[in-house]
């Protein structure tokens, strides 16, 4: 055990502590002296303490045991998502939280890790063979489509899209045929481009369809400031307009800690959560923002190195799924703040306030570290869990 502890990647641990420092300082800047939000940074310190405990426990736990039970974990996760759809609490227009006392847990965040684990469980059993469309790609797509549909029903577009990104990343490393990947890219790109063109050129009709037929007026408030800012209502464009103004005013070196004119006057909503990058951009400027992005880059680089060094089949799948998840969250969150992406409520990993989000991200880092500690112990057999029935075995023979 001590030998494995010595192999923990100190660079990743150091980066996590540095991101914790950025998070605490940023959250304090935008919550101190603001009524019920005052003291939020203390809660974040507690969440980080729990996160590092989860990190160490999972790092020392053999990740291959988690992969073996991926099917049961997936079924449990689907059950929780169904429960949220029935009794979930509504926050910011999305019905995605389960209340436990004074705490609120967002299962859609948890399911990102669950999806990574189960897709890994299935792909490991393909034994590096090229993925066939009907027997492999389509079933894997359906595995991701089920939680995607449930979370879309909950009005949580950001987390739903993350499931698609995770699926695409794992299909790519899972040896999907180039022709299938190219066709999928063309179809997906065409669909996205077609939606954007329809939204811009037939705005009124598209909005009527989204609001009246789909009943998702919340999505319109997200898409209008992104695609048709001139047509967006002042309420819908308020967040992105002020966010871009604040980031631009930060200039090269920023206006100074606790000195941001926009963030200190609360002219950007949800500064402590999804809009935390605005505080970094205004008070620390381009240099501070670049430093944070560099931390993310180094973290992802270290994760990829762990995947390359792993001798077990399952480890790289887990790492790629985690990297895809993190890249999506980083690009979506920052892109939304500067007007390049739609607002979806996605948090900035390790920096935004949020207990569920932080704990899941720290758990992902713990599993990645477990791959580093146990990935050299080759065990490609990955037998089914004891007591597995014929139906379960058939699923993994897709």
Give the topology, please.
Blueprint: H1 2-6, H2 10-31, H3 40-59, H4 63-68, H5 70-87, E1 89-91, E2 94-100, E3 103-105, H6 107-124, H7 133-153, H8 157-173, H9 178-201, H10 203-213, H11 217-227, H12 234-250, H13 261-264, H14 276-309, H15 314-337, H16 355-374, H17 390-395
Antiparallel strand pairs: 1-2, 2-3
Helix pairs in contact: 2-3, 2-14, 3-16, 5-6, 5-7, 6-7, 6-8, 6-15, 6-16, 7-8, 8-15, 9-10, 10-11, 11-12, 12-14, 14-15, 14-16, 15-16
Structural account:
A hairpin with a 2-residue loop joins strand 1 (89-91) and strand 2 (94-100). It is built from 17 helices and three strands. The chain has helices spanning 2-6, 10-31, 40-59, 63-68, 70-87, 107-124, 133-153, 157-173, 178-201, 203-213, 217-227, 234-250, 261-264, 276-309, 314-337, 355-374, 390-395; strands at residues 89-91, 94-100, 103-105. The protein starts with a helix and ends with a helix. It has 398 residues and is mainly alpha-helical.
């Amino acid at each position: 055990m001590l030998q494995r502890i010595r192999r923990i990647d100190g660079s990743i641990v150091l980066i996590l502590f540095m991101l914790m420092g950025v998070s605490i300082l940023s959250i304090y800047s935008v919550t101190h002296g603001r009524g019920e939000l005052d003291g939020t940074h203390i809660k974040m310190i507690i969440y980080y303490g729990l996160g590092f405990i989860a990190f160490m426990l999972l790092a020392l736990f053999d990740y291959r045991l988690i992969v073996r039970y991926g099917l049961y974990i997936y079924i449990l996760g689907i059950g929780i998502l169904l429960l949220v759809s029935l009794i979930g609490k509504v926050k910011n227009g999305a019905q995605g939280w389960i209340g436990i006392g004074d705490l609120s847990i967002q299962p859609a965040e948890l399911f990102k890790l669950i999806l990574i684990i189960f897709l890994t469980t299935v792909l490991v059993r393909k034994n590096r063979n090229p993925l066939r469309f009907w027997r492999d790609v389509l079933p894997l797509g359906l595995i991701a489509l089920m939680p995607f549909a449930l979370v879309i029903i909950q009005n949580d577009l950001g987390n739903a899209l993350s499931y698609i990104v995770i699926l695409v990343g794992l299909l790519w490393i899972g040896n999907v045929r180039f022709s299938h990947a190219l066709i999928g890219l063309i179809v997906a790109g065409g669909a996205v481009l077609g939606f954007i063109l329809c939204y811009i050129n037939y705005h009124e009709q598209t909005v009527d369809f989204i609001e009246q037929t789909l009943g998702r007026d919340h999505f319109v408030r997200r898409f209008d400031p992104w695609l048709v800012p001139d047509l967006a209502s002042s309420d819908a464009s308020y967040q992105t307009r002020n966010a871009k103004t604040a980031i631009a005013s930060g200039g090269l070196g920023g206006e100074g800690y606790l000195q941001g004119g926009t963030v200190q006057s609360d002219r950007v909503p949800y500064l402590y959560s999804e809009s935390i990058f605005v505080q970094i951009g205004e008070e620390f400027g381009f240099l501070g923002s670049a430093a944070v992005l560099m931390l993310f880059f180094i973290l992802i680089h270290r994760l990829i190195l762990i995947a390359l060094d792993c001798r077990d089949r399952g480890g790289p799948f887990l790492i790629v799924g985690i990297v895809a998840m993190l890249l999506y969250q980083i690009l979506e969150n920052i892109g939304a703040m500067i007007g390049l992406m739609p607002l979806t409520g996605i948090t900035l990993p390790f920096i935004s306030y949020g207990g569920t989000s932080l704990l899941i991200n720290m758990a992902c880092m713990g599993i990645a570290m477990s791959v580093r500690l146990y990935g050299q112990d080759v065990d490609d057999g990955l037998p089914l869990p004891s007591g597995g029935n014929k139906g379960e075995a058939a699923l993994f023979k897709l």
